[in-house]
Design goal:
The protein is an alpha+beta fold. The chain has helices spanning 27-38, 42-55, 64-72, 97-105; strands at 2-7, 12-19, 75-80, 85-92. Helix 2 packs antiparallel against helix 3 (64-72).
């Protein structure tokens, strides 16, 4: 797992890159990121996702990335590198650095 931080007075970027286990599906990850991007704002995404998680009868998780986006006020994106690693990027203002770093650094390796 690799963690990179870059920034300026206007923006902080946190980039987490780690290998993806063979056969591991990333469909759910990309679905959650698309959901966040299609909501009018991070608060709406967070509230809608909390309602969804609370109302389902089965399954676990599903709130983490939406919560990071909302609490840190950041945009999230993910790509697969040429080496097949997953790269998750959070971009936000430097004032939110603590809220971004803690959950992203704690992501488990796939």
């Amino acid at each position: 797992c690799r963690l990179e931080l870059t920034g300026s007075p206007e923006r902080l970027e946190v980039r987490v890159t780690h290998p993806v286990a063979q056969g591991k599906s990333l469909e759910r990850l990309f679905e959650v990121l698309a959901f966040i991007q299609h909501c009018p704002n991070a608060e709406t995404a967070y509230l809608e996702r909390m309602r969804f998680v609370a109302s389902r009868k089965e399954g676990t998780g599903g709130l983490g990335l939406v919560r990071i986006s909302y609490e840190a006020g950041c945009s999230l994106s993910a790509t697969l590198t040429e080496d097949g690693d997953l790269q998750l990027v959070a971009r936000t203002a430097p004032s939110a650095v603590g809220a971004v770093l803690a959950p992203l650094a704690a992501l488990p390796a796939p």
